[in-house]
Specification:
With 101 residues, the chain is mainly α. The chain has five helices and no strands.
Length: 101
């Protein structure tokens, strides 16, 4: 065994040890083969909770009084349109039904 190969072997072992120690200290993931790893994606923070916190709470979904009020407003608006003959046609009397005749 020659002196050059022994020196390179020792250098390689030392750098490998230093690399492993650095990874352990700083929390890095070793990837000596260089293959693709999901670590980069898994390292990121999850954003679902932040997105959910961004939007305010909607009281309309839970309060039956609010839902009843909206339904009442919708029915009164529909009644007003029907009085002016602008409401939706009865079933089977729309544009499409009149074209078939």
């Amino acid at each position: 065994m020659s002196l050059g190969s022994l020196k390179s072997l020792l250098t390689e072992a030392a750098t490998k040890g230093v690399t492993e120690a650095r990874a352990k200290i700083f929390g890095h993931v070793l990837n000596p083969t260089g293959k693709r790893s999901p670590h980069k994606i898994l390292r990121k923070k999850l954003i679902g909770q932040k997105v959910a916190e961004w939007y305010p709470y909607d009281i309309k979904k839970d309060d039956p009084l609010v839902m009843a009020q909206q339904q009442q407003e919708r029915l009164s608006r529909l009644e007003m349109l029907k009085r002016r003959d602008k409401g939706p046609p009865k079933k089977g009397q729309g544009k499409r039904a009149s074209k078939r005749k």
